[in-house]
Amino acid sequence: MHSTVRDQGQAETYQIVGGAIPESLTNRPGDPERGRLVVLDRTKGDCIVCHAMPLPERPFHGTVGPPLDGVGRRSGAGELRLRVVDPKALNSHTIMPAYYKVEGLYQVLAQYRDRPILTAQDIEDVVAYLLTLK
Amino acid sequence: MNSPRPILVVILVLVLSAPYAFVKRLVAGEPPPYVVEDRRSGYTYLSEENQRLQNDEFANPGMFWVEQGRTLWQKRDGAAHLSCVSCHGDAATGMRGVRTRYPRFDPRRNKLINLEQQLNRCREERLRAAPYPYESEALLALTSFVSFQSRGSPVEVRIDGPARPFFETGRAFFMRRRGQLDLACTQCHDQYTGQRLRGDVISQGQTNGFPIYRHTWQTLGSTHRMFAWCNVAVRAEPLPYGADDYINLELYLAWRGRGLPVEAPAVRR
């Protein structure tokens, strides 16, 4: 399966293979330290709104999604990449947003229209960070 | 051998105290419970501090709008030089229960009408005065005052007959994923109630308390302001206040919380 996303003017394609996106979305390796900041940033990932994460510097983690402690031990990069890019490819009923998708959305607020929640590099950095959660 | 006895006494006290609390509430003539079958008022998700704030008519900040509304109810206005009192008299009797029945089907417009629109219709047709803009202090005040006359009465809207298609449209709105976050109301407020979103427990999104004094806003707001706020929170385009789709949603939500007591002006986070 191929999907295309316009990412700040660039078209990024990815391929889903066996419940994973094995290939990186970018040429640059993910930076786990930057990924941690994307996870915490309320305008970007804001993952702790739903997930408990080993980030004690921020209080009040959500319980909507599963805790992510140890997620880097349980899943590989390709699986984590698909779960951030488009979790609905795995479970169409999931409450989790697709962080790298612009198609099939309804009544998107003008300022967010035709752009994904995260950039391709944000995704790679988040995946690199999640892989450190052993 | 006598160690089980204190445990038995504790169990006995607990078992007996539950019906006692229920009887006590009946005797005291308190408002209907905040839980009806599986439907829970937002009140039950509040801290005790906020529950006390709502209960105390002197401390509840929403009462400021109720009092302003009381003044507007009595004030002569418009070309007809009439007030609400001219037709309806004392609101405590004339307006009792009105809030529980809105929105309702309006045969003249052949669609639903909500309480705010009904108040403005009276202003235009009886007082011959200009309607209050949606979410203006005056409309919030009058809506709060009229709603307050139904405090404690169970919400009971009609969804049969001509109201039915509007009810169905409202339900469809609730079920539809929208916005960049691709979330439907039902996902948080049906499927994940009781879970925490950051520090906040997700409520059922019941509307029996509206208009509400919301701490996030530091002011009082209508159901439509809340709908628009939620839409923007999932990064979806909000509809204009007073939009037909929001009124249809209002009807669906009122039915979804049927039997819950009118709490206006409720205090919410």
Task: Please give a structural write-up.
The complex is a heterodimer of chains A (134) and B (269). Chain A has 134 residues and is an alpha+beta fold. Chain A has four helices and two strands; from the N terminus they run E-E-H-H-H-H. Chain A has helices spanning 32-40, 71-74, 77-85, 120-131; strands spanning 2-7, 10-15. Chain A has a two-stranded antiparallel sheet. In chain A, strand 1 and strand 2 form a beta hairpin. The longest helix of chain A is centred in the C-terminal third of the chain and has 12 residues, at 120-131. The model of chain A has no long low-confidence stretch (mean pLDDT 93). Helix content of chain B is 45%, strand content 9%. In chain B, the strands form four sheets. Chain B has a three-stranded mixed β-sheet with strand order 8-7-9. In chain B, helix 3 (63-74) crosses helix 7. The interface between A and B is medium-sized, with 22 and 23 residues.
Detail the poorly predicted runs of chain A.
none
Distance between the termini of chain A: 30 Å
- Largest beta-sheet characterization of chain A: 2 strands, antiparallel
**Assembly form of the protein:** heterodimer
Number of strand elements of chain B: 9
Report the structural category of chain B. mainly alpha
Number of helices of chain A: 4
